[in-house]
Amino acid sequence: MQRSGRSRARQGAQPSKPSKTAIRKPSLPHPHHPIIQSQRNPSGSFTTVGRYVNETVALLSARSPKLSRALAKARKDGLLYLIMDGTLIPIDRVAADRPFYSGKHKKHGMNLQVIASPDGTIVWVSGPLPGSVHDLKAARIWGLVRALAAAGFLVPADKGYVGAGPHVKTPYKGKDKPESLKDANHSHAKLRGPGERANAQLKNWKILTKLRCCPHRAGHLAKAIHVLQNRELNAR
């Protein structure tokens, strides 16, 4: 993200506000970028830089689609099914850390629910919930199960969503399954695979490999990344 008013910022003028920011493909900061200057000059204000970063993230997050709009667009685009998956954004441990511990992942973090298209494009990202929240519970909290059923989508999902409803297709459980069920699970995994790639897209951004700010900012950051990635895809 680069400011359209960078030339003015170099001359000491007030940088343009995020509402006037030109959103471009993310790149390494320019040597004259305010973050670099504040590191070189002790008098530089990290508070000011941090405020602009937070405001820009909030602006991008606000542009991410609401669930109903995202599903309507998916239907308009002719998608026959959508993939639902949860991902854990690791965090630094906090004082009251028990609610943030995920037994599934064996680490502390925030639970995000992600809806992806059959080609792995992110369709929608939820807000954050503590890592101890089970994926199915999280999906119900965000209204995903009901909304996906109402929109008429079939939904391949992993075993964490067993019991979500007839439209949510999960793998067959149990050992010593007959070959027919093994084949069905293999086909199911192929359908579900792009959802895992969608989660990997989020974590390609270093800030989400381990969150070191307030854990509850995970959702805003993920939504902002979603907007940037879709913008990049549309520009191709």
Automatic annotation (TrEMBL):
Any one GO molecular-function label of the UniProt entry: metal ion binding
Lineage: Bacteria, Bacillati, Actinomycetota, Actinomycetes, Streptosporangiales
Segments of skewed composition (Polar residues): 36-47
Region (Disordered): 1-47, 169-195
Basic and acidic residues biased stretches: 173-186
Record carries keyword Metal-binding: yes
Keyword list, A-Z: Metal-binding
Every DDE Tnp4 domain range: 84-230
Cofactor: a divalent metal cation
Keyword Metal-binding: yes
Pfam families: DDE_Tnp_4 (PF13359)
Protein name: Transposase family protein
Top-level division of the source organism's lineage: Bacteria
